Amino acid sequence: MAADFEAAVEDGLRLSKRIYFGKDRAVAPPKPHTAMERAAGCSYLPNSPMLYAVISDPAVVDNPDMPSYQPHVHGRCDPPALIPLQLNGVLLEVDCYLHTAFVTLTGTWRVHCVMGSRSCDCRIAVPMGEQGSILGVEVEVPRKSYGTEFISVDNDKASENVRKTEDGGFLKAHIFTLTVPQVDGGTNISVKMKWSQNLLYHDGQFTLRIPFSFPEYVTPAAKKISKREKIELNVNTGPETEILCKTTSHPLKERRRQAGKLGFLYDSEVLSWSSNDFIFSYTVSTSHTFGSVLLNPPLVGDVDRRDMFYCYLYPGKKESGKVFRKEVVFIVDISGSMSGQPLEDTKSALFSGLAKLGPKDLFNVIAFNDETCMFSSTLEPATVENIENANKWVNSNFVASGGTNILLPLNQAIKMLFDNSDSIPIIFLITDGAVEDDKNICGTVRNQLTNYKNISPRIYTLGIGKFCNHYFLRLLAMTSHGHHDAASDVESIESRLEGLFARASSIFLADIAFQNFDVLDDLEVFPSQIPDLSSESPFVVSGRYRGTFPKTLKVNGRLGDMSGFTLDLNVEEAKEIPIAKMAAKHQIELLTAQAWFSKNQELEKKIAKMSELNTVVSEYTNMVLLETQRGKANADTKKSSRKGDAHQKEEPKPKVISTMHNIGLGYGSLSATGENIPSGYGDPDELEGAEVFAKSGCGCCGRCWRHCCCMCCIQVCSRMNDQCGIVFTQLISALACLGCYSCCSACCGGEEG
């Protein structure tokens, strides 16, 4: 999809040459990237929020203010070309709470490339930062407005006779797209985009990075147009903290400073739009581990009427220097679907992870497909010699082939890890496939981990692509105090793996427990197994409760030198921090993993309600696009106005015009895994549907041709002359008819017709 999108933008830039900008020679149409620029990594994927005109008929492309009366163009663009629209103004508003940022970008674009008498669809692209989650899009055009909404898949609105669009959803894991229908040429479009994302954390420093790098060709051609660029940033790091600013990409002016709070503003008339991402980094001054507990009542409309709490810990420099000695087993999927770049990037990240092990650490590597292959039968010390031998072993044994069997290597890794009291056992599981016995694996692992008297193994999982079941992997991690991450596209495998390794390698506080939770009633904690605290990531636990929360929450744990750790956390009302919005995405992901495992329909309904209330993507809701007409009175309103009931005018009601299905991660694809389809090729639901169709339609033909592969057919057909090709086509058509006839007979109970 990303490659098709880039090709469509390149076609659109070529079409832009038809736009006439007058006699000003300084104004020229945008040029596509040269071959050298493409080789250097230049891409047409958006690095900032963008709007594109969707052009199927190239004859409509012209300046709406200054027609050029060019010759008619015969033919159509299939697939449609995408012409980037010109940006007239932009406002970026960011509210940072602890380690979560809520971003609202409001921009005004103009359909500068379509005749005033014609119209076109407009596609919105929203690139997001770290772990971004789309919250909503609002669009204003003359006489109409549009907005997105999350509704349950069982909602009546979803079953209405509306268009199920394919021109929306996630282009890549961090790029959301949405299509607005039929906007007139020359129209100004106001768009408000909202999303949430995490702040990066490293070595005590928080970094906010928002895609805000606009290409040159979105700058309006007319020099007299005012171009205002504005950024508003608010930072709230919690009570009793001091913020130290480090770096910023744009010239921000401080306008507010309080304890734990900062406010900044940037407002300027510019000649061209920002060509850099918006970056802001800061530290929270402390030498010791500290944190707090924030409380909130339930939101209005929340089906769960229990109160909410949000507990966080920031790692301190004094304690984080005492990391645990580690016993690490790397389990890597080398099935056929991992061939090429996925396996090469995994190997690169694995080499980096091995190099960071300390001399007192122990390690092993297990490669698996249908079978397993181990670097060593036991854990080996992480000496320079052993690391070099492991790298050589990986290069010679990591050959992609075969299927996917996860249970066998997991059992081997768990048995291999010692039940020691002076080290922390860690399993890294990297896979791109789904397995049939995933629920059995979760139950088996859970039973095995309960047998550990000391620190039980932590399982860190990385799912690659959409064909693996991310909720299975998340449940494995959640059961074992571990962590799950997803590399939704091949390009992000190495960076996500290195981040996962860094997080697990810097654990300095384990076996964390809250001592006075027992005074609360009906307590629910997310995640249920309390995670460890790493110097590379803040610690967050949220939940629901009834009763009176204690004034201080006592936290106990075990440090890397095996000494005890105790901390009293102050409990406060979160008056200015929206903890429900901050916790919603993580809670929905954890609850979805539980709902997948238990098949609990009540839990599924609860998740759908949470998604609707907090506007967060889930597996049990669809995103719909609502249209509201403005400036047109309906018949009832006209009748009431004639009678003098002017005060009873009804506001126009929005109606659903399109539905975007399956924008969540999904539950993987067994058929794609079985066929070793590489990650990122096709959609799991489409593949499952194709498999069902093939099974139902092939009948006896499938049994006749079960030993024939597609490549064999291609090779045979390439050697045929025309007459043989015709005969072969007729034969396949006849067999297909026989197959359909046998299927129909089976469906109809053997009756004729």
First and last CA, distance: 42 Å
Task: Label the structural class.
Answer: alpha+beta
Rg calculated over all Cα atoms: 29 Å
Biggest β-sheet strands, sense, barrel: 11 strands, mixed
Mean pLDDT metric: 86
Helix amount = 25-40%
Shape: globular
Tell me the quaternary state. single chain
| Spatial order of strands in the largest sheet | 8-35-34-7-6-11-4-3-14-17-16
Low-confidence stretches: 633-641, 688-719, 738-753
Strand content: 25-35%
The number of strands is 35
Number of helices: 16
Task: Please characterize this protein's 3D structure.
The protein is of the alpha+beta class and 753 residues long. Helices cover 27% and strands 33% of the residues. The chain has 16 helices and 35 strands. An eleven-stranded mixed beta sheet has the order 8-35-34-7-6-11-4-3-14-17-16. A hairpin with a 2-residue loop joins β6 and β7. α6 packs parallel to α7, α7 packs parallel to α8 and α8 crosses α10. It is globular and about 80 Å long. The protein starts with a helix and ends in a 6-residue tail after the last helix. The C terminus is likely disordered. Pfam families: VWA_3. InterPro entries: VWF_A, vWFA_dom_sf. It comes from Salvia divinorum. This is Inter-alpha-trypsin inhibitor heavy chain H3.
